[in-house]
Structure formats: C-alpha cells, structure tokens
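Example 3.2
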Amino acid sequence: MTDTTGTPAPEGAQPEGVEPESATAAPTSTTGAGSGDAAGGPAGESTASAGRHRYFEGGPGASSEPGGEDEFDHGAGETEREVLAREDALAASYLADLQRLQAEYVNYKKRVDRDRDVIRNTAVGSVVESLLPVLDDIHMARQAGDLADGPFASIADKLESILGRYGVERLGEAGQEFDPNVHEALMHVEAELPEGASGTHVVQVLQPGYRIGERLVRAARVSVADAG
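Structure, written as tokens:
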C-alpha cells in the first residue's frame, strides 16, 4: 500500500482517517429482548413448556420425563387433588361397569342352564310317556311273580336302570303316607295299617308314577286306607 506521495507505507500501518479495529470483537449481549428464547435459557424453557399439560411426578401413569408416551396427562390448571379425585371417579365408574357385566353374565349362565334342564327333562318325559304302557306291563308282571328270574326279568331291570340314569324316578310304594302331590287315589278300602299309623296310607300300587326332576310325568295310581 502507498501513501499520497507514492512512498510505500510501512507494513501494518493504517490509512489516515481510519480508526484501528479492536483486536477482539465485543461480546454479543444475551440480555436483550428475545435473546432468552433464541439462546434456550429460562425464557426459552418457559415458552417450550407453555403448551404442555402440567403433570405431577409420581402420579399414576406418569413417566419420568414429561412428553413421553406414558406421560400422565392433566388438564391445564388442575391441582393434584383435583386430578386424583377425577381419576378415582373414573376408576370407580369402570369398576361399576365391570361388576354389572359380571352380574349379567352370571344371570345369563343360570338362565341358560335352567333352560337346558327344562328342555332335557321335557325330552326325557316325552320318551317316558311313550313307554308308560310297557312300564305298566313290567310292573304287573313283577307283581304277578313273572319277573322273579329269566331273560325277561334282566331286560326289565336294564330298561329301568337306563331310565334311572336319565333322572327318571318311580313313585308309589305300599305303606307310604298318601301324598296328593304324587299319588292319585283310585280306590278307598278298609285295611289294617301298622300300629301307631295315622292319616291315610297307600295300601296297593295299581300303576306306579314317574317323575323327572321337578316334572311329574304321571302320579302313582294307588289304593288307600284310613287309619282306625
């Protein structure tokens, strides 16, 4: 570089009228308006968290860091007590719904089981009704002594055993006290009853009755006598 006279200027010299530059740049101030947001200082943290729900560390469902997938979400401005009360009410509502569903299921299962038993007993009762003439013949043959032994006695026993496995109960025995719920009196006779007996008793079973569970297929047709 040369001066106005054409003589080369010394190295490092500054032109006239030009102030020398500072050796170090002045530090940039970080306290100006908006500097906190740009630098990520406290003001930046406040801005970043302004749109985030307040959460309480250690609350149900809370993560260790806010913003996580399992962060405990609260409404803005709620206190911890208000949040816990709301969550308790929600849990109580869910529990009540669960208990109601369980009760409905238990009632449904009972109803299905009851209907199944009714259908089963109705079906078996229809079969027994169709077999009543055969069962009456077996009863008469047994009273006459024709079923003391022999192959027919074995067949009769097997038939009655099979019906018993399906819940078929035979009704009517001599000496029983008369019960209008299961007995039908066809004859009223004079007969000696055991000493101390009172009321009306079955003397002879003319046709046995049959019952399946609570369903009476046929009442036992009997002959009865009164105690003296």
